[in-house]
Amino acid sequence: MASKVESFIHAIFHYLVLASCACNGFYLPGSYMHTYSTGENIFAKVNSLTSIETELPFSYYSLPYCKPLGGIKKSAENLGELLMGEQIDNSPYRFRMNVNESVYLCTTTSLNEHEVKLLKQRTRDLYQVNMILDNLPVMRFANQNGINIQWTGFPVGYTPPQGSEDYIINHLKFKVLVHEYEGSGVEIIGTDEEGMGVITEADRRKASGFEIVGFEVVPCSVKHDPEAMLKLHMYDKISPISCPAELDKYQIIREQQRVSFTYEVEFVKSNTRWPSRWDAYLKMEGARVHWFSILNSLMVIFFLAGIVFVIFLRTVRRDLTRYEELDKETQAQMNEELSGWKLVVGDVFREPDCSRLLCVMVGDGVQIAGMAVVTIVFAAFGFMSPASRGMLLTGMIILYLFLGITAGYAGVRLWRTIKGSSEGWRSVSWSVACFFPGIVFVILTALNFILWGSNSTGAIPVSLYFVMLSLWFCISVPLTLLGGFLGTRAEPIQYPVRTNQIPREIPARKCPSWLLVLGAGTLPFGTLFIELFFILSSIWLGRFYYVFGFLLVVLLLLVIVCAEVSVVLTYMHLCVEDWQWWWKAFFASGSVALYVFLYSINYLVFDLQSLSGPVSAILYLGYSLIMAIAIMLSTGAIGFLMSFYFVHYLFSSVKID
After folding, report:
1. Strand segments (E) across 73-129
2. Residue 656 neighbours by CB distance under 10 Å
3. Other Cβ atoms closer than 10 A to 200
4. Could you give the 3-state DSSP secondary structure of residue 211?
5. Residue 47: left (phi > 0), alpha (psi -120 to 50), or beta?
């Protein structure tokens, strides 16, 4: 538990150093650069086994693989890695810089029934081994229909089409791309497991050697002679092996079989420099699709902006001008003939139903929206490299904790505005601090019991629960209460008109207003759904997502569309004398979450067809529900605040005797 807290402190320190060094200009790749001399030992690491079919990660050593001579040692992991179910361990795979060799690793004992069943299950569920060398994940290339497809990791085994037998991958042909480094004028700053470091001139002179810029593998299944292999020791040299093409030369998974593991490594010099080594993983394909998404969003924005322009400059301005030019007697006569938003002047600021819940949801929405914007801005400027595993999630959690002050301030100030006094602000602040985290806690706990039952590394350890609860109550809750206190001290928002004692009757409508509110969510969803496909693919199909520049633009467009949709819907309701606009303004933009969740189900059915078993589907829907709730709160808060400003501005222009 101490190592987890230490990793979390390192993450906070990382952000502080970034803030202090931002003015100097530096390259931030996300990991400290290592150089190796010829013959120097380099050990690969292994991450959790993953599958796009089950989405249940398992430990590498849950299968009968070769273990390191010094025993299994876990690497220090940050908060994000632990929450994502990553478990990085050391491995026996040893490379010697610039030494090409074929090496024997080990031979297992005779496979028992449980090991055979587990290997067959992992093979048929398409589990991948995720190996890491110098912080680079291993990459393999597969040819499908004449197209080279790039993957990270390699399969546990192979099952031929219409085949009844399974074969284990037990021979790996590695290719390590290296670049000779002799020092340069670039200042490099980054993080690794040891924390933070800046390469100085003295270090740069010492750093001459070879840097690893690529890590590729060709996996094979090879049937070795177990009797001959048992005579060898780990790291003994063997003759180079060619990957067989015939199935009878593959290593079958069967009881009482011994499996021998071997590998060979080839070092190849490359012109790729260390700062560019992640480019191969982050190749942005489908840029035209991203641009289409942005242009599509712009069209929606201009359409809505035109409606808002008409409302403000033609309707509202014209009505106000005519109304203010009339004398009092004519105004009194005109009031009897008026229809529309001017008739609800005495009810428009009447306290809504469930006002406490509205304040709580708006406060949490402001906190989530602030976290999303700041995180994506940092990521767009390159401060959250994929080389720093888990840093994106860790950064989001840190920002969420510290933005509790904005949630408390927004929720309590709205509460004070509605009630006219600060009475009850403490309970509102506590509700803001516990509402969204409480929902997430309940959902994650339910999913965690499922993961515990499956013995998955994706299960959150009990110790991490205590860490998260400590962070919640020691950082987020106090800051939320502080924000609430500041909200009570802020200048109160004064209503521009008085509220009548008797509420005005709302005219009957042919169709329920909630249908219009739910339909309004399609417009914000239209700006989001293309980018949502890439985000879901990166989460569930193991693809790297690093087009945060596009995502930042889409996020800004989404904010604008949510604000415009909510304003237009609020005005439409006021025009039909419906003064209960508060919740409708919130859900006019917040209803986009419903379409996001429905799209997630569509993605599960049509794009994750390989996802197998009810456990995987429940996990997927649980995480999708958390995402949808967060989107509802953030977009709803944006729409509500803009509508509140619009209504306040609109009625502050009306003269009341």
Report:
1. 89-96, 101-107, 128-129
2. 9
3. 10
4. strand
5. beta
Which residues are bridge partners to 74 per DSSP?
A: 89
Distant-in-sequence, close-in-space partners of 375: CB < 8 Å, separation ≥ 6 = 384, 392, 395, 396, 399
CA–CA distance from 534 to each of 87, 286, 405 (Å)?
25, 10, 32
**CB under 8 Å to 583, separation ≥6 — which residues?**
352, 353, 354, 358
SS3 268: strand
Q: How far is CA 2 from CA 9, 78, 467, 470, 472, in A?
A: 11, 12, 10, 13, 17
Distance (Å, whole) CA 650 – CA 519: 25
Contacts 24+ apart (CB under 8 A), 107-110: 107/224, 107/226, 107/229, 107/230, 107/258, 107/259, 107/260, 107/261, 108/64, 108/66, 108/258, 108/259, 108/260, 108/261, 109/64, 109/258, 110/255, 110/256, 110/257, 110/258
pLDDT of residue 318: 58
Predicted pLDDT of residue 415: 93
Report CA torsion sign: 43, 47, 49, 53. negative
- Cα angle, residue 119 at apex, residues 116 and 124 outer, rounded to 5°: 120
State both tokens at 88: 């990085």
Retrieve residue 101's tokens.
């060799």
Number of other residues whose CB lies within 10 A of the CB of residue 336: 6
- Whole-number Å distance between alpha carbons of 468 and 4: 11
Q: How many Å apart are CA 45 and CA 75, to the nearest integer?
A: 9
- Tell me if residue 96 falls in helix, strand or coil: strand
Nearest to 173 by CA among 273, 95, 247: 95
- CA 314 to CA 305: how far, in whole Å? 13
Residues with Cβ within 8 Å of residue 471, at least 6 apart in sequence: 8, 397, 401
Query: Could you tell me where the DSSP H helices lie in 284-421?
Result: 287-309, 317-325, 328-335, 355-380, 391-402, 404-419
Q: How far apart are CA 533 and CA 2, in angstroms?
A: 38
What are the backbone dihedrals phi and psi of residue 649, each rounded to the nearest 5 degrees, phi first? -65, -40
Backbone angles phi, psi at 54, to 5 degrees: -115, -25
Our CA angle for 436, 440, 444, nearest 5°, is 175
The answer to whether the beta carbons of residues 315 and 575 sit under 8 Å apart is: no
With DSSP H G I counted as helix, E B as strand and the rest as coil, what are the percentages for the chain, rounded to 5? 50, 15, 35
Name residue, tokens 């929405």. Answer: 365
At residue 415, what is the residue type? W
Other C-beta atoms closer than 10 Å to the C-beta of 647 total 23
| E strand or H helix that includes residue 191 | strand 189-192
Three-state DSSP string of 532-548: HHHHHHHHHCCCCCCCH
Report the pLDDT value the prediction gives residue 651, as an integer from 0 to 100.
82
Question: Which of the residues in the chain have pLDDT under 50?
Answer: 1-30, 185-199, 284, 334, 336-338, 657
- Comparing C-alpha atoms, which of 521, 516, 513 is closest to residue 591? 521
Secondary structure of residue 241 in the 3-state scheme: coil
Residue 119's Cα: distance from chain center in Å? 31
Structure tokens at 505: 């009757």
166-192 exposure pattern, b = at least 16 Cβ within 10 A, e = fewer: bbbbbbbbbbbbbbebeeeeeebbbbb
How far is residue 135's CA from residue 209's CA, in Å, rounded to a whole number? 17
Alpha-carbon distance of 230 to 106, in angstroms, equals: 8
pLDDT reported for residue 198? 47
Q: Is the dihedral of CA 61, 62, 66, 69 positive or negative?
A: positive
What pLDDT score does 277 carry? 86
Kindly give, in sequence order, each residue whose CB lies less than 8 Å from that of residue 3, ignoring residues fewer than 6 positions away. 76, 77
